Amino acid sequence: MSKAPKPVFVCQECGSQSAKWLGRCPDCDAWNSFVEERAVEPSAGGGGLAAGGHRYSMPGGTGGAKKYADIENSDTARLTTGIDEFDRVLGGGIVPGSLVLLGGEPGIGKSTLLLQAAANFARVHGPVLYASGEESEHQVKSRGERLGVGDAPLFLLAETCVERILEEIGRVRPRLLVVDSIQTVFSLKFQSAPGSIGQVREAATQFLFTAKGHDLPTFLVGHVTKDGALAGPKVLEHVVDTVLYFEGERHHSHRVVRAIKNRFGAISELGVFEMTGGGLRPVPNPSQMFLAERPTATPGSAVLCCVEGSRPLLVEVQALVSTATYGTARRMAVGIDSGRVSLLLAVLEKRAGLVLVGEDVYVNIAGGMSLDEPAADLAVIAALASSVRNRPIVQGTAVFGEVGLGGEVRGVPQAPLRLREARQLGFTRVVLPASNLDDDSRQQADDAGTTLVGVRHVGEALDVLLG
Ligand code: TYD
Ligand code: MG
């Protein structure tokens, strides 16, 4: 007879383990995060494809070490999802055998996007298994009707038991698996509740083995908590090949899917969608959409050329500086790091002579975008100064560049890409770091009739921008 399994307490925030319950996690300092989890002896576990413990070999692997030069360079063929914006975030389509996590707040469109992708995929590449632990087959179907799934070989399974899903894989032999969501499934090998860190890790690991062992690309849906973290298990991000997040606000119709980690492509890659009555539609020209409602000739608005992954985007940076009526002045930033905004405010005071003490400062990236590129600095500075001086930025002008603490404007990567996007959207003047001005970009700008103004210092930039 086998011994009863020892109880182990696991921190639900970071996965740290302890033999006894602790009030505070010694690793991540979270309070009251330890939960008892019991592993079931391996022999008692359900069958399925992943049975046999945690050993697996990669497809084509012989087990032994191979010399680098002898390994064939199999340029992994990408499988298209039929949705070009989604393929783009994935780095050019689905890589066979990859495990992808799609995170996002409830109701943002995870199930909708994956159902659309699953149907398209099934039509082209063969059967797809969509395992839903959240909705019944009827619910998924009624959504599918709106999305025009039609007669694609799509198999729906309302199931939360990992071993059952794996069994069904053996039966259906799908080319793609979708698990909606990882927090609702549980493995028989664990006694703790679905959604606990042990369960989530175990289930994800089993799906990982199946994905690698059977070359079965797998999408896992993951819920996100209010503060933007993947609910509980950060551990998931390490297990999977690719982590995608849905961004944007539910109140806006557009949605942004961003790659946070990608073993097979660029990170920060963006896909932009619009939620319509018939599901998510790719937005062919996101810059146009982000600039659609931009006020012209209004102080405090600057157009920035940023680059997300391999995609140039024009977005509007808005600033409002107004005298604080009582108490300490407020500083608020939406869509951009508020620490960075404070730093830029200090640069403006010290290096450009603006007086900001006692002023409320609000900075917002229009359209719900979030930016973390230093190239946004100059646009933030421009919007702030424009609001303080109550002068609009000269029409038809776009801007980019990093700003240092000395007030110097520094060069940024991918300047030609940014300039091209600005030209395409009809901007006639671009203010950029002087070090980004080379003969090539000058020539191109001349041909297109765009004026490029290279600047070295914020003071110089403000003179040019505010006229
Ligand atoms: P859903 O994919 O269920 O979100 P998640 O799986 O991330 O929780 O998206 C649900 C939202 O999308 C819901 O508010 C309704 C809306 N929606 C549309 O506007 N059009 C559609 O065609 C569909 C299917 C959903
Ligand atoms: Mg859902």
Mean pLDDT: 87
Compounds present?
thymidine-5'-diphosphate, magnesium ion
For the biggest sheet, the summary is:
9 strands, mixed
CATH class of the largest domain: Alpha Beta
Structure description:
This protein has 467 residues and is α/β, with parallel strands linked by helices. It folds into 3 domains: 1-38; 78-284, Rossmann fold, CATH 3.40.50.300; 289-466, Ribosomal Protein S5, domain 2. Helices cover 28% and strands 24% of the residues. The chain has 12 helices and 21 strands. The chain has helices spanning 84-89, 110-125, 137-147, 162-172, 197-213, 235-239, 286-291, 338-352, 377-389, 415-424, 439-448, 458-466, and strands at 8-11, 17-18, 34-37, 99-104, 128-132, 154-158, 176-180, 218-223, 242-247, 254-262, 270-276, 279-282, 301-308, 311-323, 331-334, 359-365, 397-399, 402-403, 409-410, 429-433, 451-455. A 9-stranded mixed sheet has the order 6-5-7-8-4-9-10-11-12, sandwiched between helices. A 7-stranded mixed sheet has the order 15-16-14-13-17-20-21, with helices on both faces. Strands 2-1-3 form a 3-stranded antiparallel sheet, with no helix packed on it. A hairpin with a 2-residue loop joins strand 13 and strand 14. The longest helix is centred in the middle third of the chain and has 17 residues, at 197-213. The chain is globular and about 75 Å long. The model is unreliable at 43-57 (pLDDT under 50). It binds thymidine-5'-diphosphate and magnesium ion. Thymidine-5'-diphosphate (TYD) is lined by residues 104, 106-112, 143, 146-147, 275, 277-279.
